[in-house]
């Protein structure tokens, strides 16, 4: 078992899965509150379709990476890793800004669907809300699986377990559980994802060095092999763990380390800044759609 790859997938599945599960739970709780619980199947249908399409996208991307020959394989893998890191970074900051208003916005969207009498709109609402998280998760897991190589299967196993835990947390949230401090949860998992995304950036730079797209700063910066081996050929559990999660290697190139450090320092500093809250009016609950 590749502990690092498993943990990486678990954390990603849990973090992104909780966001999607909370969205569905908020929609369902509001439907129940307004006497429209009979439309739960429509919401779950939209969410389920989004999950299936996200899984197909992730599988397609992963299989595509392995179908290319050099140097196109490295180019495509580097592009996938950078896109994954970019999407995750954007979503971290989007969630950071919008977290306080997500509930109100979802309630307003449900109201519009109910007042307009469009049951299909509820399925579309759930689909759009979940597919956003699903695409992000698919890209991120593809990048992690490509980086993990032989440990790719454990990234998937970890992600599935993480998504399962997220689904249970979503059910608990729907039934009124408040034991999970969501602000603290998203803050600390967000910090972890910054470091994971930094590892993807470093891996992308390394791939570009291998095919001579980057030729500056390719010399080895330091060698920690005697202390802690790390990389694809690492035989140590700790080294494998750090490599799978954070992209650690005992012999990083200068430009690879600079790219990783710059990303982590800049993104982490911006992510940890205080958020300026914007107060918004709370919408009136919609009435039930007459049968």
Poorly predicted runs of 5 or more residues: 285-291
Order of helices and strands: HHHHHHHH
Residues in β-strands, percent = under 5%
Q: Main β-sheet: number of strands, strand sense, barrel status?
A: none
State the total count of DSSP E strands: 0
- Judged by helices, strands and strand pairing, the structural class is mainly alpha
What do the pLDDT scores average to? 78
Q: Can you give the helix content as a percent range?
A: over 70%
Number of domains: 1
Secondary structure tally, helices: 8
Radius of gyration: 21 Å
What overall form do the CA principal axes indicate?
A: elongated
End-to-end Cα distance: 54 Å
Describe the structure in brief.
The chain is mainly alpha-helical. 73% of the residues lie in helices and 0% in strands.
Characterise this structure:
By secondary structure, the chain is an all-alpha fold. It has one domain (3-271). It is built from 8 helices and no strands. Helix 3 runs antiparallel to helix 4 (119-148) and helix 6 (182-210) crosses helix 7 (237-246). It is elongated, with a radius of gyration of 21 Å. The N and C termini lie far apart (54 Å).
């Amino acid at each position: 078992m590749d502990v690092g790859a498993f943990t990486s997938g678990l954390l990603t599945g849990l973090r992104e899965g909780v966001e999607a599960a909370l969205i569905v739970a908020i929609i369902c709780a509001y439907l129940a509150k307004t006497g429209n619980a009979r439309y739960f199947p429509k919401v779950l249908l939209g969410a389920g379709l989004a999950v299936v399409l996200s899984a197909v996208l992730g599988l397609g991307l992963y299989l595509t990476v392995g179908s290319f020959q050099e140097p196109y394989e490295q180019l495509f893998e580097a592009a996938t890793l950078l896109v994954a890191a970019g999407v995750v970074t954007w979503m971290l900051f989007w969630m950071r800004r919008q977290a306080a208003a997500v509930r109100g916005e979802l309630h307003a969207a449900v109201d519009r669907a109910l007042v307009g009498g469009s049951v299909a709109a509820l399925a579309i609402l759930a689909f759009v809300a979940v597919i956003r998280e699903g695409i992000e998760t698919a890209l991120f897991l593809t990048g992690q699986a490509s980086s993990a190589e032989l440990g790719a299967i454990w990234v998937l196993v970890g992600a599935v377990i993480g998504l399962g835990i997220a689904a249970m947390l979503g059910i608990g949230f729907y039934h009124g559980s408040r034991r999970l401090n969501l602000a603290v949860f998203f803050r600390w998992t967000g910090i972890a994802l910054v470091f994971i995304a930094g590892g993807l950036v470093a891996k992308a730079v390394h791939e570009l060095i291998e095919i001579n797209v980057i030729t500056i700063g390719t010399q080895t910066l330091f060698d920690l092999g005697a202390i802690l081996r790390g990389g694809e050929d690492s035989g140590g559990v700790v080294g494998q763990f750090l490599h799978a999660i954070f992209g650690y290697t005992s012999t990083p190139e200068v430009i690879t380390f600079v790219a990783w450090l710059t990303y982590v320092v800049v993104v982490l500093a911006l992510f940890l800044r205080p958020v300026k809250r914007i107060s918004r009016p709370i919408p009136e609950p919609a009435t039930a759609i007459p049968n």
